[in-house]
Amino acid sequence: MVLIHLVAAEAQRDEVVRVANAHTVVFQCSDADTVEVAASLVDRLTADFGVWLVVSKEYSAQVAARDVATLAAIVPLRHVVVAASSQSHEHAEVLRALLTNDEVNFTNSVASIVGAYNRPAPPAPIRVWSYDDERLVSGDDVYSKRDVEASDAGELTYFA
User: Which helix (H) or strand (E) segment is 89 a member of?
Assistant: First the structure.
């Protein structure tokens, strides 16, 4: 499988839909909130879709998990890439832990969560990836950056 990181402006939504319906895309909006723009694609996406989220102190993995659960109820969300200035793997663990209907009691180097719920869980499983040094990692799967190109849809980075 190839995952394509597509960075595009909000005004390029039509092109994003065209590419996303033909390939497995993880979308990141360059000039607006990625989750809000992805939600605006409701009823236009016919293939599995993903989002690329940059977590930080201002946008924690816990808040990203809430956004992902909501977005998954709207679009066919199957992939989430978690990027961070450091410890992206740990942030991805937090997001992964919060995508269930179960009570979450979880601690790692970036978060300590006790008795939390993030209901409802997404209607279909979501693969959570971390972005680390030009690689995508999810469990035992590691995808490396293969190619970058500019298109009418935005910048496309291929991972395989």
Answer: helix 88-97
